[in-house]
Amino acid sequence: MQEVLFAIWILAIIGPIAWAWYNQASVAMGVTLSLLFGYIVQLFWNFFGAYELYRYVVMVPAFVENGEFHTLVTSGFVHSPGDALHVLGNIIIIALVGIPLEERLGRNKWLISYTIGLLGGSIAWTVANSGSYTPALGASGAAFGILGAYLCGWPRDEVFFPFILIRKWPVQFIALIYFGLEIVRAYQVYEFSEISHVAHIAHLGGFIAAYAFLPILKKGIEWEEEAELSEISEENPFEGVDELVKRLIEEGDEKETRQAWLEEIADRAKCPVCGSGLYVKKMRIKCESASSHVSWP
After folding, report:
1. Hey, which of 37, 186, 232, 270 has its CA 20 to 30 A from 20?
2. What is the mean pLDDT of residues 23-36?
3. Would the pLDDT of 119 be above 70?
4. CA trace torsion 66, 67, 68, 69 (10° rounding)
5. pLDDT at residue 194, rounded to an integer
6. Average pLDDT, the chain
7. Does pLDDT of 195 surpass 50?
8. In terms of residue numbers, what domain contains 149?
9. Cα–Cα distances in Å, from 23 out to 18, 30, 31, 282?
10. In 10 A of CB 176, how many CB atoms?
């Protein structure tokens, strides 16, 4: 029975990521689902009393030093069954901040950055607690790595995030709030010997590691900023949409209205190079077959 439960957990972890990769979907969303499904399977572990399965996946510094290096990774996909808020907190960061970061980095480099944050947190906890038999688990180190990487690369980006209100907040605000709070909490724990069951050092380790490696991953990435209305002229490379372009210029002062008119143009027009369909990204119309064919305005 335990072997079956463990195999189901492995499938729940790997399945969503593999599916996203194969279908060219968001890997960040795949990881989000992986953490959610993995947690649900863990609830069945507890229901059937298979507590010993945790021994094979959680990270224990003393065991890592004796060669159980796989737990540096597996511990990032397992959470305490009674701590649903911990899982939810990690999922919120990975989904709301990780997906926009993936759009910046691309799928391959995002996955590398996520892994760096995960390993950075695990290694930091192991080094800080050398010889300890205190286990650590959870994706918080990787989640903090996402914040660190985004802060390093594109701090002025705004993403939807639930700080009091669910609205767009600058990445630098979100990341620095989280990082600052972790420094305060870590200081309280280690300086004043307060009791804490949270691996603050792992959070800081993931954040710093991903922040430090982001400049390497960012090399070669060219990113277009959103087109401003002043860049748009009635001259365009498309046929049959001159009236729509005119309406865009006249009514596109508001971002939402501008987006709507651009999408309407993309729906009506075709790529002037290959005749393929068009889509809108960052307030620019691009070809579905090859983005190099057209980028307007």
Report:
1. 270
2. 94
3. yes
4. 130
5. 40
6. 87
7. no
8. 2-218
9. 9, 11, 14, 23
10. 14
Looking at the fold, whether 178 and 109 belong to one and the same domain comes out as yes
Lowest mean pLDDT among 169-173, 214-218, 236-240: 236-240
* Same domain membership, residue 205 and residue 233: no
Are residues 97 and 60 located together in one domain of the fold? yes
For residue 297, whether the previous peptide bond is cis, meaning omega lies within 30 degrees of 0, is yes
Q: What is the CATH number of the domain that holds 186?
A: 1.20.1540.10
DSSP-assigned beta bridge partners for residue 169 = 159
Q: Are residues 71 and 141 in the same domain?
A: yes
Do residues 7 and 150 both lie within one domain? Answer: yes
What pLDDT, in 10s, does the model give residues 237-283?
888 888 888 888 887 777 778 888 888 889 988 888 888 888 887 77
* Strand segments (E) across the chain: 158-163, 165-170, 278-281, 284-287, 295-296
Total domains in the fold of the chain? 2
pLDDT beyond 80 at 198: no
> Do residues 23 and 59 both lie within one domain?
yes
* Residue matched to tokens 């980006």: 157
Identify the DSSP state of 162: E
192 and 246 share one domain? no
* Residue 236 contacts residue 242 (beta carbons within 8 Å): yes
- Alpha carbon distance 162, 170 (integer Å): 12
Any domain includes 37? yes
Residue 224 counted as domain residue:
no
User: What angle (nearest 5°) sits at the alpha carbon of residue 182, between those of residues 177 and 187?
Assistant: 130
Q: Taking every pair of C-alpha atoms in the chain, what is the biggest distance, in angstroms?
A: 71
Cα 294 from chain centroid (whole Å)? 29
Question: Given pLDDT bands bounded at 50, 70 and 90, which one contains residue 9?
Answer: very high
